[in-house]
Structures are given as structure tokens and as C-alpha cells.
Amino acid sequence: MAPAVSDDALAEFADVVLRIGREVDPHGPHALDIVPLTGTEALVMRWVHRNPGASPSAVAESTALQRSNCSVALRSLVAKGMVERRTDPEDARTVQLHPTPLAHDSIARLHAHWAGRLRAALGGDEGGLDAAAALLARIDDGLRRS
Record's InterPro entries (predicted)? Predict the structure, then answer.
């Protein structure tokens, strides 16, 4: 049985996603005044922001980073004032990671930037956005599992 979608169509889809990623990159042509992060730091920051109170080992496992690479990124994020390490109130041997006010501010500016760029690109016609977001989330999930 032939695939429902051609390899060429899937490759073009991936290429479009990459082009969009370059256009909304906060350090690209439309740079923002936010704390600059490496790709690994951004991956870790995204996880900590969405899962405040996570342990360093949970972050490493969830992001599929080697613990040493995750530790380097976390040290850098702490040094940049983006992540705060706190002792778990229920187990003093455990550390919890939390985004700082600076992180919340940078992320809010980043999200506003993304929303503005996409809204302008769509020219007011945002129909189908929910379906597109669901499809991309499904692809993201599938890629992470494989």
C-alpha cells in the first residue's frame, strides 16, 4: 500500500517548518532584547518553565539530554538569572528548579513576539490554526517517542 502523503510533501512540510522557525527566531533578523540562550539552554528553560519544581534528573530525562549536558545548561541558566534552584520542602536532599521573574519576563516578551509575527503573517485569517497546532504537536510527540 502506497503512503497517503508523498515523501516530497513531507520533506516540503519539514522545510516550511524550518523556514518559519528561522523567521520567529528571537536572535534572528527581528532580534529581541531578551536573555540570549543556546539551543540546549532554551530546551531546558522551556521544560522548567512548563514544569516548575521539576528535579534536574527529571529535566534531563524529559528533554533526552545527557545529565552532564543538562547540568551544564542548568548552571548557565542559573548564572544568567533564569532558573532558581530550591530545596524540596518535603525532601531536603532533592533540588527543585523554578523559573525566575527574569525568565517569566523574557518568556512573556518572546511569546508576544511570536504572536505578533504570526498574526501579521496570517493577515487576520487565523482559521485552521488550532488544527495546525494539533498536527504539529502530534508530530512533535511522535518524533520524541521515536
Answer: HTH_MarR-typ, MarR/SlyA-like, WH-like_DNA-bd_sf, WH_DNA-bd_sf
